[in-house]
From TrEMBL, chains A, B:
Residues 53-198 form the Peptidase M16 N-terminal domain. It comes from the Bacteria. Belongs to the peptidase M16 family. PANTHER family: METALLOPROTEASE, MITOCHONDRIAL-PROCESSING PEPTIDASE SUBUNIT ALPHA. SUPFAM superfamilies: LuxS/MPP-like metallohydrolase. It comes from Mesorhizobium ciceri. This is Insulinase family protein. Residues 207-389 form the Peptidase M16 C-terminal domain. GO terms for molecular function: metal ion binding; metallopeptidase activity.
Length: 462, 462
């Protein structure tokens, strides 16, 4: 569990189930919206077929990051077809009518580039980092697989075995991952984020060519995609190349608005407990349903971001200072908020005991900090420091070209626009201490939370 | 919470959320499948338009029970449209092209009859009890509203206000009902039984004429309906009248198989707690996902029925004897199993403390009985007595004409057939003690259960 700022520094969300990443290499984790100084001169435009294009010039090094984000994630899947969005991430690496399977990967590695893909609740993204001279080739490959995949029963069966094995190794073999899945299924009573991105095993096993073809034809269209190009390239060049490649792909039928089932009011305290012999150190996390940047009222998500930062966003946070440094009862303690989501999202606090401390002691201490911030709010000083850390984090983010690409891509794929990214630090700067206290009081109600416990040994009972 | 046998005796499931009943009068609760002695001579046949007809002659009194069961329940609803099945139960009492709103109800009461309707996860049923001479009139009204409802925006808005008020009064005003909803949403991680039959408020508010018309056109068709006529009437008469009335309704498009999302493997212990000042006596219930008569392997549901009866099916059950009679710590304790469901269903144990006993004492004692029956199974003597009670319960069931109609209707609406009902006591008779122990051991694992707590006062925290 990492704080937002750690994400901005480029830390991988390696243990999170929110993102399912296809090898060959690990993808950068998508990061949260942030502002971009004027010198970045971000350009955005639409191709005639509806494909959105964002260009982020960055001439410090002769490389370019090329990403295509499809506005289709696991939360858009039809009932009973869980896993098909991630399955499609895999299928996109198979043969097309123009290229054999693996040809795209080899073309990237032959020129010393890297490529990857990832799937989340709200989007599926494909990306390559290469020399600028290879940008047209990347676009050509990417535009080709947008429409020309060959989906045979044989391809489906082979790749389905791969995702089933991926589920076995990444989820079913990991007590932490199994617990996370059931916590999600408990926290979310109605919203599709309760379904794992990788899919439920029994539904993945049934995915077939008919499902895949329908999914491909519906969602893999230029008018459902966002192209992000960051790096050593000019907007005019990107536009010309994009029109030459992606521009030749026919627009698909208009897609309906992404209106999904939403959460009912929650009224109960829920717990989810997994005891497993493979667990050595107990841990817990408590989650609440809160608004995201897209679903919240103006300023709410910004206040939640600062709340998470002050409460548990790193070594200077209240939770870390109280539990790890002062009381010495916890080996870890913190909080995070995943704001860049299309629908309501989760706010999490967590902790694990150290030495002889019991998990119940750590939970009580975390709860006490939650109650305190709800009751007394935050100080002007800690609010200013949190804001400063966010602004400084942008300096680190700008150092990584693909971080900027991820910020724009994830924002545009979850209902935001370029202005939302550019104005984000201004909005953060405007948050008041009262607003932070208000979101804490409104959302962090322990009697309406979900706590997951990962315990080392079998509990009593049977 | 009532045992299955109490259901068969005609007890209303008044507090269950599984059935949403429209006034004017309380419906009989649907009951579970059972066998019927030969003297009942049940006849079943299909009309040319695909409507299934079951006739259960019973000449002891000059009355007839007329029911139409539609194979459409809340678990068939599209995502985000929860409550529409129950909404339709209400809309069916509005005006048609041939009859004003209320005309059907008045026709029934004018002849001294009674009528009602109810909605569950798997079906929606409409029924009237009248003199045999009025059977054709009932069929005529029922066949009319199968296709001729006038669904205007005004009708939708008015009746939507009614169901919203029904939700407020029946669910939101009842801590027990609110808890039950969130327990269901927790127990079921994927299967649609996690969604309340009455619907989530925020989705009910959005139901509109377009949704309603599409739903009506898809599901309210003779080939998606089962007609049950029980009482003082002969099969030939029913056939002639049914052909004259229902037979004139055109067959609708074939419906796809009712294949819904199913549960993943469950791996955790979950709890759901609601503390409310309106609660005076604490209580709890623990549930497991288990197979139903339709989803289980042969014999599993029969074994679960006997397990529920022996463990907690009434005053002679282990839980009642141990907790209420011998230890004196509980005011109530029992178990039940809802077998007549299309998909996997739930097995429940429950209890409430008496006097100075704590709820944790009662839960520990219930858990101990669960562990004991898992470990040691049941005795031949208690198994035989449980079987005898089931067979005797049929004698009571036969005394109520509408019980038989409900048994056939609910079975046929959940994937069963007439033979399943007729052979049920034979199958119950064949269950062995080993089979009962096997289902207990397989399904009643406390580390994979969901427990709901209803507590009298606000817990600590905030």
């Amino acid at each position: 569990m990492t704080s937002r700022i750690e994400w901005l520094r480029g830390t991988l969300l390696a243990t999170s189930l929110a993102f399912v990443v296809t090898s060959p290499v690990l993808a950068e984790s998508p990061v949260l919206p942030n502002t971009v100084p004027a010198e970045f001169k971000v350009t955005d435009f639409l191709l005639d077929n509806g494909m959105e294009v964002v260009v982020i010039p960055d001439h410090r090094a002769p490389i370019v990051t090329h990403m295509v984000w499809y506005k289709i994630g696991s939360a858009d899947e039809p009932p009973g077809k869980s896993g098909i969005a991630h399955f499609f991430e895999h299928l996109m690496f198979k043969a097309t009518t123009n290229h054999a399977a693996g040809e795209f990967d080899r073309a990237v590695s032959d020129i010393g580039g890297s490529n990857n893909a990832f799937t989340s609740y709200d989007y599926t993204a494909f990306h390559e980092t290469v020399a600028p001279s290879a940008l047209e080739l990347m676009m050509s490959f990417e535009a080709d697989r947008m429409r020309n995949l060959i989906l045979t029963d044989d391809v489906i069966k082979t790749e389905r075995d791969v995702i089933l094995e991926e589920r076995r190794s990444r989820i079913d073999n990991s007590p932490e991952a199994v617990l996370d899945e059931e916590v999600d299924a408990t926290l979310w009573q109605n919203q599709p984020y309760r379904i794992p991105v990788i899919g439920w095993m029994q539904e993945m096993q049934q995915l077939n060519r008919v499902d895949a073809t329908a999914f491909y034809d519906k969602y893999y269209r230029p008018n459902n995609a966002v192209l992000i190009v960051a790096g050593d390239v000019e907007p005019d060049t990107v536009r010309a190349l994009a029109e030459k490649t992606y521009g030749k792909v026919a627009r698909g039928p208009d897609l309906p608005p992404r209106i999904r089932p939403v959460e009912p009011e929650q009224n109960t305290k829920r717990t989810v407990t997994l005891s497993d012999a493979r667990v050595s150190v107990p841990s817990f996390s408590t989650q609440w349903v809160v608004p995201s940047y897209h679903s919240g009222k103006p300023g709410e998500a910004e206040a939640l971001d600062l709340l998470a930062e002050i409460l548990g966003g790193g070594n200077r946070s209240r939770l870390y200072q109280a539990l790890v440094v002062q009381q010495g009862i916890a080996s870890s303690a913190g909080a995070f908020f995943q704001g860049t989501m299309l629908d309501d999202t989760n706010f999490t606090v967590y902790g694990a005991p150290r030495g002889d401390a019991r998990i119940s002691d750590v939970e009580a201490a975390v709860d006490a900090e939650v109650v305190r911030i709800v009751k007394d709010g935050v100080t002007p000083s800690e609010l200013e420091k949190a804001k400063d850390r966010y602004v400084r984090s942008m300096i680190f983010a700008r150092d990584k070209q693909d971080s900027m690409a991820n910020i724009y891509g994830s924002t545009l794929a979850t209902g935001g626009n370029v202005q939302d990214v550019q104005q984000w630090t201004d909005r953060i700067r405007k948050v008041t201490a009262d607003e932070v206290k208000a979101v804490a009081a409104r959302y962090l109600v322990l009697a309406r939370s979900t706590t997951g416990y990962l315990l080392p040994q079998q509990q009593a009972g049977n």
